Amino acid sequence: MKKAIGIFDSGLGGLTVLKVLAQKFPNESFCYLGDIARLPYGNKSPETIRRYGLQVLAFLKNQNVKAIIIACNSASTVFLTEKEFEGIPLLNVIEPGAAAAIAMTDDNKVAVLGTSATIRSHAYRDTLKRLAPEIEVIEQACPLLVPLVEEGMVDDTITEQIARRYLSDIQQQHYSTVILGCTHYPVIKGDLIKVLGPKVNLVESGDVLAEELKALYQDHILQPDVGTRQIRVCITDLTDHFERLAHKLMAPETISDLERVVL
Questions:
Q1: Looking at residue 6, what DSSP letter applies?
Q2: Which of 98, 126, 127, 222 is the most buried (most CB within 10 A)?
Q3: Is the CB of residue 84 less than 8 Å from the CB of residue 64?
Q4: Given 31, 72, 142, 234, which residue is catalytic?
Q5: Mind listing the pLDDT tens digit for each residue in 115-171?
Q6: Complete domains list, the chain, with CATH
Q7: Catalytic: 31?
Protein backbone atom coordinates (compact mmCIF):
# COMPACT_ATOMS: atom_id res chain seq x y z
CA MET A 1 0.00 0.00 0.00
CA LYS A 2 1.22 3.50 -0.84
CA LYS A 3 1.77 5.95 1.98
CA ALA A 4 -1.83 6.77 2.82
CA ILE A 5 -3.71 9.66 4.32
CA GLY A 6 -5.12 8.65 7.71
CA ILE A 7 -8.66 9.58 8.73
CA PHE A 8 -10.05 9.18 12.25
CA ASP A 9 -13.69 9.15 13.33
CA SER A 10 -15.62 7.75 16.27
CA GLY A 11 -17.79 5.59 14.02
CA LEU A 12 -18.88 5.20 10.42
CA GLY A 13 -20.00 8.83 10.00
CA GLY A 14 -16.50 9.80 8.97
CA LEU A 15 -16.97 7.76 5.82
CA THR A 16 -18.85 10.84 4.55
CA VAL A 17 -15.49 12.63 4.77
CA LEU A 18 -13.54 9.72 3.29
CA LYS A 19 -15.93 9.55 0.33
CA VAL A 20 -15.49 13.25 -0.47
CA LEU A 21 -11.71 13.05 -0.17
CA ALA A 22 -11.53 9.86 -2.24
CA GLN A 23 -13.45 11.61 -5.03
CA LYS A 24 -11.43 14.83 -4.89
CA PHE A 25 -8.04 13.11 -4.58
CA PRO A 26 -8.45 10.07 -6.86
CA ASN A 27 -4.79 9.03 -6.79
CA GLU A 28 -4.39 9.04 -3.03
CA SER A 29 -4.63 6.01 -0.77
CA PHE A 30 -6.54 6.29 2.50
CA CYS A 31 -6.49 4.45 5.82
CA TYR A 32 -9.64 5.07 7.86
CA LEU A 33 -10.14 4.19 11.51
CA GLY A 34 -13.69 4.16 12.92
CA ASP A 35 -13.75 3.54 16.67
CA ILE A 36 -17.17 1.88 16.62
CA ALA A 37 -16.52 -0.21 19.73
CA ARG A 38 -16.43 2.97 21.84
CA LEU A 39 -19.08 4.96 19.96
CA PRO A 40 -20.41 7.52 20.67
CA TYR A 41 -17.65 9.93 21.68
CA GLY A 42 -20.23 12.68 22.05
CA ASN A 43 -21.31 11.67 25.57
CA LYS A 44 -17.76 11.17 26.90
CA SER A 45 -15.63 13.57 28.95
CA PRO A 46 -12.86 15.56 27.21
CA GLU A 47 -10.27 13.51 29.09
CA THR A 48 -11.70 10.22 27.84
CA ILE A 49 -12.07 11.50 24.28
CA ARG A 50 -8.44 12.63 24.26
CA ARG A 51 -7.25 9.30 25.64
CA TYR A 52 -9.17 7.43 22.93
CA GLY A 53 -7.92 9.88 20.33
CA LEU A 54 -4.26 9.40 21.25
CA GLN A 55 -4.70 5.64 20.87
CA VAL A 56 -6.20 6.11 17.42
CA LEU A 57 -3.49 8.55 16.34
CA ALA A 58 -0.82 6.07 17.45
CA PHE A 59 -2.53 3.32 15.44
CA LEU A 60 -2.62 5.46 12.31
CA LYS A 61 1.02 6.51 12.77
CA ASN A 62 1.94 2.82 12.87
CA GLN A 63 0.20 2.40 9.49
CA ASN A 64 2.85 4.75 8.06
CA VAL A 65 0.39 7.47 7.01
CA LYS A 66 1.67 10.79 5.65
CA ALA A 67 -1.04 12.96 7.26
CA ILE A 68 -3.88 12.45 9.74
CA ILE A 69 -7.31 14.05 9.50
CA ILE A 70 -9.43 14.15 12.66
CA ALA A 71 -12.84 14.02 11.01
CA CYS A 72 -14.63 13.49 14.32
CA ASN A 73 -15.84 16.86 15.62
CA SER A 74 -15.95 15.67 19.24
CA ALA A 75 -12.31 14.56 19.00
CA SER A 76 -11.35 17.76 17.16
CA THR A 77 -12.44 19.79 20.19
CA VAL A 78 -9.68 18.21 22.32
CA PHE A 79 -6.94 18.56 19.67
CA LEU A 80 -7.73 22.16 18.66
CA THR A 81 -4.25 23.65 18.85
CA GLU A 82 -2.16 20.70 17.66
CA LYS A 83 -0.90 20.85 14.07
CA GLU A 84 1.05 17.60 14.08
CA PHE A 85 1.29 14.25 15.84
CA GLU A 86 4.84 12.96 16.28
CA GLY A 87 5.94 14.72 13.12
CA ILE A 88 2.86 13.85 11.03
CA PRO A 89 0.65 16.76 9.83
CA LEU A 90 -2.62 16.80 11.77
CA LEU A 91 -5.83 18.41 10.54
CA ASN A 92 -9.04 18.98 12.46
CA VAL A 93 -12.35 20.39 11.33
CA ILE A 94 -13.28 23.12 13.83
CA GLU A 95 -11.48 26.26 12.64
CA PRO A 96 -11.86 25.62 8.89
CA GLY A 97 -15.51 24.74 9.46
CA ALA A 98 -16.07 28.01 11.32
CA ALA A 99 -14.26 29.99 8.62
CA ALA A 100 -16.37 28.34 5.92
CA ALA A 101 -19.58 29.28 7.76
CA ILE A 102 -18.48 32.91 8.12
CA ALA A 103 -17.75 33.08 4.39
CA MET A 104 -21.14 31.53 3.62
CA THR A 105 -23.49 33.56 5.84
CA ASP A 106 -25.08 36.72 4.49
CA ASP A 107 -26.81 37.76 7.72
CA ASN A 108 -24.05 37.18 10.33
CA LYS A 109 -26.01 34.32 11.88
CA VAL A 110 -24.60 30.79 12.21
CA ALA A 111 -26.17 27.75 13.86
CA VAL A 112 -24.04 24.84 15.07
CA LEU A 113 -25.35 21.28 15.35
CA GLY A 114 -23.22 18.74 17.19
CA THR A 115 -22.89 16.02 19.76
CA SER A 116 -23.22 16.89 23.43
CA ALA A 117 -19.41 16.92 23.79
CA THR A 118 -18.91 19.26 20.83
CA ILE A 119 -21.59 21.68 22.00
CA ARG A 120 -20.40 21.59 25.63
CA SER A 121 -16.90 22.53 24.50
CA HIS A 122 -18.22 25.66 22.71
CA ALA A 123 -15.31 25.13 20.30
CA TYR A 124 -17.26 26.29 17.27
CA ARG A 125 -18.87 29.23 19.09
CA ASP A 126 -15.56 30.46 20.47
CA THR A 127 -13.80 30.06 17.12
CA LEU A 128 -16.59 31.82 15.25
CA LYS A 129 -16.50 34.72 17.72
CA ARG A 130 -12.70 34.94 17.51
CA LEU A 131 -12.75 35.06 13.72
CA ALA A 132 -15.80 37.35 13.46
CA PRO A 133 -16.94 38.95 16.75
CA GLU A 134 -20.14 40.26 15.16
CA ILE A 135 -21.43 36.75 14.36
CA GLU A 136 -24.57 35.64 16.18
CA VAL A 137 -24.28 31.97 17.14
CA ILE A 138 -26.83 29.44 18.31
CA GLU A 139 -25.69 25.95 19.38
CA GLN A 140 -27.81 22.80 19.47
CA ALA A 141 -26.81 19.39 20.78
CA CYS A 142 -28.40 16.53 18.82
CA PRO A 143 -27.31 13.37 20.69
CA LEU A 144 -29.86 11.01 19.15
CA LEU A 145 -28.84 11.65 15.55
CA VAL A 146 -25.61 9.62 15.65
CA PRO A 147 -27.24 6.34 16.74
CA LEU A 148 -29.99 6.87 14.14
CA VAL A 149 -27.33 7.12 11.41
CA GLU A 150 -25.44 4.11 12.74
CA GLU A 151 -28.72 2.16 12.56
CA GLY A 152 -29.18 3.23 8.95
CA MET A 153 -32.38 5.21 9.63
CA VAL A 154 -32.04 7.61 6.69
CA ASP A 155 -35.08 9.31 5.10
CA ASP A 156 -37.04 7.94 8.02
CA THR A 157 -40.07 9.53 9.69
CA ILE A 158 -38.60 8.97 13.17
CA THR A 159 -35.35 10.71 12.19
CA GLU A 160 -37.29 13.62 10.73
CA GLN A 161 -39.45 13.95 13.87
CA ILE A 162 -36.39 14.00 16.14
CA ALA A 163 -34.69 16.52 13.85
CA ARG A 164 -37.76 18.77 14.05
CA ARG A 165 -37.57 18.73 17.84
CA TYR A 166 -33.87 19.61 17.87
CA LEU A 167 -34.06 22.25 15.14
CA SER A 168 -37.23 24.12 16.09
CA ASP A 169 -35.42 27.17 17.56
CA ILE A 170 -33.02 27.37 14.62
CA GLN A 171 -35.92 27.20 12.19
CA GLN A 172 -38.05 29.74 14.05
CA GLN A 173 -35.15 32.21 14.31
CA HIS A 174 -34.44 31.86 10.57
CA TYR A 175 -30.82 30.79 10.70
CA SER A 176 -29.84 30.16 7.08
CA THR A 177 -26.25 28.92 7.66
CA VAL A 178 -25.83 25.74 9.69
CA ILE A 179 -22.61 23.92 10.57
CA LEU A 180 -23.12 20.16 10.55
CA GLY A 181 -20.74 19.68 13.47
CA CYS A 182 -20.67 15.88 13.27
CA THR A 183 -19.59 13.65 10.41
CA HIS A 184 -22.75 11.57 10.78
CA TYR A 185 -25.09 14.43 9.95
CA PRO A 186 -24.49 14.63 6.17
CA VAL A 187 -25.90 11.10 5.93
CA ILE A 188 -29.29 12.49 7.01
CA LYS A 189 -28.93 15.78 5.15
CA GLY A 190 -32.22 15.13 3.39
CA ASP A 191 -34.06 14.85 6.70
CA LEU A 192 -32.43 18.05 7.96
CA ILE A 193 -33.31 20.00 4.82
CA LYS A 194 -36.94 18.92 5.20
CA VAL A 195 -36.93 20.74 8.54
CA LEU A 196 -34.67 23.71 7.77
CA GLY A 197 -35.89 24.35 4.23
CA PRO A 198 -34.24 24.01 0.82
CA LYS A 199 -32.46 27.38 0.99
CA VAL A 200 -30.38 26.52 4.06
CA ASN A 201 -26.58 26.67 3.66
CA LEU A 202 -25.00 23.57 5.20
CA VAL A 203 -21.33 23.44 6.15
CA GLU A 204 -20.13 19.83 5.83
CA SER A 205 -16.90 18.40 7.21
CA GLY A 206 -15.90 16.61 3.99
CA ASP A 207 -15.85 19.76 1.86
CA VAL A 208 -14.05 21.75 4.56
CA LEU A 209 -11.36 19.11 5.08
CA ALA A 210 -10.84 18.70 1.34
CA GLU A 211 -9.81 22.37 1.19
CA GLU A 212 -7.47 21.92 4.16
CA LEU A 213 -5.86 18.88 2.54
CA LYS A 214 -5.53 20.74 -0.76
CA ALA A 215 -3.59 23.47 1.07
CA LEU A 216 -1.04 20.91 2.31
CA TYR A 217 -0.27 19.98 -1.29
CA GLN A 218 -0.14 23.61 -2.41
CA ASP A 219 2.29 24.42 0.41
CA HIS A 220 4.38 21.34 -0.55
CA ILE A 221 3.94 19.83 2.89
CA LEU A 222 2.55 16.71 1.20
CA GLN A 223 3.51 15.25 -2.15
CA PRO A 224 0.76 13.83 -4.37
CA ASP A 225 0.72 10.14 -5.24
CA VAL A 226 0.16 8.59 -8.64
CA GLY A 227 -1.01 5.17 -9.77
CA THR A 228 -3.34 2.63 -8.21
CA ARG A 229 -4.64 3.52 -4.80
CA GLN A 230 -6.24 1.60 -1.95
CA ILE A 231 -9.01 2.57 0.46
CA ARG A 232 -8.58 0.66 3.70
CA VAL A 233 -11.30 0.88 6.34
CA CYS A 234 -10.47 -0.32 9.85
CA ILE A 235 -13.12 -0.44 12.55
CA THR A 236 -12.85 -1.54 16.16
CA ASP A 237 -16.01 -3.65 15.99
CA LEU A 238 -17.23 -5.43 12.86
CA THR A 239 -20.70 -6.84 12.38
CA ASP A 240 -22.67 -7.66 9.24
CA HIS A 241 -24.75 -4.52 9.85
CA PHE A 242 -21.72 -2.24 10.02
CA GLU A 243 -20.16 -3.89 6.98
CA ARG A 244 -23.30 -3.29 4.89
CA LEU A 245 -23.58 0.28 6.13
CA ALA A 246 -19.92 1.03 5.36
CA HIS A 247 -20.25 -0.07 1.75
CA LYS A 248 -23.53 1.83 1.40
CA LEU A 249 -22.06 5.08 2.76
CA MET A 250 -19.02 4.81 0.48
CA ALA A 251 -20.87 3.94 -2.76
CA PRO A 252 -19.93 4.34 -5.55
CA GLU A 253 -16.36 4.41 -4.16
CA THR A 254 -14.95 0.95 -3.48
CA ILE A 255 -13.46 -0.11 -0.16
CA SER A 256 -10.33 -2.14 -0.90
CA ASP A 257 -10.07 -3.68 2.55
CA LEU A 258 -12.50 -3.70 5.49
CA GLU A 259 -11.16 -5.17 8.72
CA ARG A 260 -11.60 -5.24 12.46
CA VAL A 261 -8.64 -3.97 14.48
CA VAL A 262 -7.77 -3.80 18.17
CA LEU A 263 -6.23 -0.60 19.50
A1: E
A2: 98
A3: no
A4: 72
A5: 999 999 999 999 999 999 999 999 999 999 999 998 889 999 999 999 999 999 999
A6: 5-92+207-260 (3.40.50.1860), 95-205 (3.40.50.1860)
A7: no
